[in-house]
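Before the break, one more example. Copy the sequence into your notebook; we will annotate it together after we see the structure.
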Amino acid sequence: MKLSISTLLMAAASMSLVACGGKGCSKTAEGQDAQEQNAPEAVASEQAEQKNEVVVLFDGTSTDGWRGYNKENLPGKWVIEDGALKILGGGGGEAQGKDGGDIIYAAQKFKNFKLTFEYKVARGSNSGVFFYAKELPGDPIYISSPEYQVLDNEVHPDAKLGVDGNRMSASLYDMLPAKPQNAKPAGEWNTGAIMVYKGTVVHYQNDVPVVEYHLWTPEWDAMINKSKFAQGNPNWPNSYELLTSKLGKNDAGELEGGYIGLQDHGDDVWFRNIKVEILD
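Here is what the structure looks like once it is written out:
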């Protein structure tokens, strides 16, 4: 069954009502629920049990867990600058050689999760965020992984390519446009998020849901077939299968999730406060 954004919001509201005994929670002058004041220890215990695990992928000081895609170490062009993970653009597009290239958080794979992050682009810059990525020797990361586009919409030509703006910031690259398009200009920080739950995926940009899609459905397969990763593409003959029936799955067809990755497109881009909330 497909889960729409409205369905998820209604479910969250219902859970809130249940926690308040089916009635609106009364608030004290301090802004706490009356229930919490009456039994603070019980409420704190319940909240701790319900809280999902959060994995910090980048805290502003360490690149532990990160390495290059199909590499043993973190490429030298990925550096920490003012609490952000920055790719030093060389102006050569994706051809960054041994000191550059895409990176993955290799310490853990994720299945059902909400990834949150902040990003900033320099003028004319291009990058992306990947999930469910596989490491495939000889093949780029983007043929096995959906991409949350990161872009300077005002200058980079990708903003005017594709269909209906589906290569603009926060879009599902080359497939679905982010609407509304609310990216901030180059040089300003944006917030981004990707929620993946049992096949439903939502992209957020600056706290607004801008894209929704559903993996492993006929609609998803058809969408891949209309993109640059379509069946029969001689450049990436395996891309269609990797992005449809094999997406996030092992050889036995079981869901195992995949890696989260960041793209080096040859431009200056910054990421910070990268976290994953586990929804399994």
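Residues 95 and 266 are 7 Å apart (CA to CA). The two ends are 17 Å apart (CA to CA). Try to locate both features in your own notes.
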